[in-house]
Specification:
mainly beta; Immunoglobulin-like; 4-stranded antiparallel sheet; T9SS type A sorting domain-containing protein; Secre_tail; signal
């Protein structure tokens, strides 16, 4: 079995995967690595599928954000407890706001923190775990009524950094893939600490462990190599140096 000397996780997405015309979206998108972002949900949309929430009102019956991926256990952010709370009593720090122009749009600002800081995870974990959430009233299960919530929702996460993600080992000085996320062509550059391993190759693997592509003898090429990934489906892939 070949040893894996370095690993990066790369997001591949179609240019129209998520945009401001969709019923559920990030703004800005791609998601900033170091800046705040808002999540918008149109509660009248099929994507939300939330007929029980149509009487939402910011003054008397506001909505709340409830999330479990990429991490359910989360650290304090900006001095705030940002855990979900209880199903019948959501955390007040996760209250959503109604858009001032479109009353059907509600948004959550991640307490004005970057997405990764909010969840307490790095970029690799966020892309691997995905983003899952729902929208609910403060009491999600009032006595004698249906649950006051949306369906479970999710979005593919892509970030705005252009410089790729690197991991290192005793053999590998650097492994870079960029841009990340990528649409069509990714450039991969490698540098070794030990020249005896110059026959290493790149293997692209799906999250479920299937080898999708294999590029041989990629180490030490001055400007790296370009790999066309336009035929791959949108998703998250692992690049292994083996």
């Amino acid at each position: 079995m070949k040893k894996i000397y370095a690993l990066i996780i790369l997001a591949l997405f179609c240019t129209g995967a998520v945009n401001a015309q969709d019923a559920v979206y990030f703004d800005p998108f791609p998601v900033p690595v170091n800046g705040p972002v808002k999540l918008y949900v149109d509660i009248t949309s099929a994507a939300c599928n939330c007929p029980e929430l149509q009487d939402a009102n910011p003054d008397t019956n506001p909505l709340y954000f409830w999330t479990w991926n990429p991490a359910e256990e989360r650290p304090y952010v900006n001095g705030m407890n940002i855990l979900n709370g209880y199903w019948n009593n959501s955390n007040e720090n996760l209250i959503m706001r109604q858009d001032s122009v479109n009353p059907n749009l509600w948004y959550f600002s991640f307490v004005e923190a970057p997405f990764l800081e909010f969840y307490g995870v790095n970029q690799q974990i966020a892309m691997a775990n995905g983003f899952s959430f729902l929208v609910k009233e403060k009491n999600g299960a009032p006595m004698g009524e249906p649950e006051q919530k949306s369906i479970d929702m999710g979005l593919d996460i892509t970030f705005d950094n252009e410089t790729g993600i690197s991991d290192f080992s005793e053999i590998v000085a650097s492994l870079e893939a960029y841009p990340n996320p990528v649409v069509e062509v990714v450039r991969v550059k490698t540098e070794l600490r030990d020249a005896n391993y110059s026959n290493l190759s790149i293997r692209i693997v799906s999250i479920d462990g299937r080898t999708i592509m294999h590029e041989n003898n990629v180490v030490g090429i001055e400007n790296g190599i370009e790999i066309n990934v336009s035929d791959l489906a949108s998703g998250v892939y692992m690049f292994q140096l083996v």
